[in-house]
Design brief:
It is globular and about 35 Å long. It has a two-stranded antiparallel ribbon with strand order 1-2. The longest helix has 18 residues. It has one domain. By secondary structure, it is an alpha+beta fold. The chain contains two helices and two strands, in the order E-E-H-H.
């Protein structure tokens, strides 16, 4: 099973090893609702997820080198 080490958007900065099955494609016009797939209502999680998607939308428009400098775990 292949895993990737990822840094998550949002605060506090977190990272984890994630399997391929847990990774979803992100496109600039996605909304946080696309990533709510468990049917549970959790207002705190929804706020955190909304902010993370906003941050991802900002990041996706950056040049790759600038995005790496801004969002890698070491930079944050």
């Amino acid at each position: 099973m292949t895993s990737y080490h990822v840094t998550f958007f949002g605060e506090p900065v977190t990272r984890a090893w994630v399997t391929c099955r847990s990774i979803k494609v992100f496109k600039q016009h996605d909304t946080y609702r696309k990533f709510l797939n468990d049917g549970k209502k959790d207002p705190t999680r929804d706020i955190v997820l909304r902010k993370a998607v906003q941050e991802a939308c900002h990041a996706i428009s950056m040049e790759v080198q600038h995005r790496r400098k801004t969002y890698t775990f070491v930079a944050r």
